[in-house]
Design a protein that fits this description.
This protein is an alpha/beta fold. It has one domain: TIM Barrel (Alpha-Beta Barrel), CATH 3.20.20.70. About 45% of the residues lie in helices and about 10% in strands. The protein contains twelve helices and eight strands. Strands 1-2-3-4-5-6-7-8 form an eight-stranded parallel β-barrel, surrounded by six helices. The chain is globular and about 45 Å long.
């Protein structure tokens, strides 16, 4: 591969779209098409297929291809599509990443390989290998609660020197990460908020966007918070509006059953996404009622 990155610029609200399922847990591509069209109509700025909220880890290789192709077709030139190309091994990640590039994805969302717990040097070698294999912008995804390893700021600064690493979704919930990463990296990397309870703080410190699974449920709310904080630079208004949404955002973010609640939230808002795929299960009736209560009046 050459060093020239295919040029795309990402900002704003990026939705890691759910993967709708039928009642027997088969991927529902028709519903995925309709739902992506809905999200675009609500003003979101980009869509990521096959993120953790999209249950990529529970899909077969063919299902992953079908989901990405469907999202690319409905989004076309309307909003950019990033592809989550994560897997347990570097070889698999490269294969999925090259496939996503060939299919027309605008960028890649890459977390650390899960389960193996690679060291910082091993993580660098992993991302370097992927970087050399593609010509797409790469958004790192740091969520140690999912992967078991932390992309610490010093490592992010090393990774930011790779030719295609241009963004990071920072999901630790540690607000100091934003300023530390920006101080260490300067203009070589842009930060997206990846924690649904601190977007305004992240925007205040210089984040350029927000990648949030709850945007599947409340896309207008996410877009308005971003517009107030970044487009209008009215942090006080953004904060006040965020406080209205905070009970719902906090309820889902801290629940320990994030994907299950997001899919149920889609149902509540009139966009059925079906059940999660096992081992995840539908939420209880009691939890569903709690979710309905915190979502009331939001969109």
């Amino acid at each position: 591969m050459t060093d020239k990155t295919i040029s795309h610029t990402f900002h704003g609200i990026q939705v890691p779209v759910v993967t709708p399922m039928t009642e027997d847990q088969q991927v529902d591509l028709d519903q995925l098409t309709a739902f992506c069209d809905h999200l675009i109509g609500q003003g979101v700025h980009a869509i990521t297929a096959l993120g953790s909220t999209g249950e990529y880890y529970a899909l077969s290789p063919k299902e992953r291809t079908d989901v990405l192709q469907t999202v690319l077709e409905v989004c076309q030139d309307r909003v950019p599509v990033l592809a989550g190309t994560n897997a347990a091994s570097t070889r698999e990640v490269i294969d999925y990443s090259q496939q996503a590039q060939a299919m027309g994805a605008a960028g890649l969302l890459l977390a650390a390989p899960y389960y193996s717990l690679p060291t910082p040097d091993e993580l660098f070698a992993h991302f370097e290998a992927v970087n050399e294999a593609v010509n797409l912008p790469i958004m790192l995804y740091n969520y140690p609660g999912r992967t078991g390893v932390d992309l610490l700021p010093d490592l992010v600064a090393r990774l930011a020197q790779l030719s295609h690493v241009q963004y990071i979704k920072e999901s630790t919930g540690d607000i100091t990460r934003v300023s530390t990463i920006l101080k260490l990296c300067g203009d070589s990397i842009k930060v997206f908020c990846g924690a649904d309870t601190i977007p305004v703080e992240c925007f205040m410190l210089g984040a350029v966007g927000w990648v949030g699974g709850i945007a599947n449920v409340l896309p207008k709310t996410h877009v308005k918070i971003y517009d107030l904080a970044v487009t209008q630079n009215d942090l006080a208004a953004a904060r006040d509006f965020f406080f209205q949404a905070w009970p719902a955002l906090n309820f889902i973010e801290t629940s320990g059953i994030y994907t299950q609640l997001v899919k149920a939230g889609c149902q509540i808002k009139g966009h059925p996404a079906g059940p999660p795929r096992q081992p995840l299960l539908r939420i209880s009736k009691e939890k569903y009622k709690e979710l309905e209560a915190v979502l009331k009046g939001l969109d």
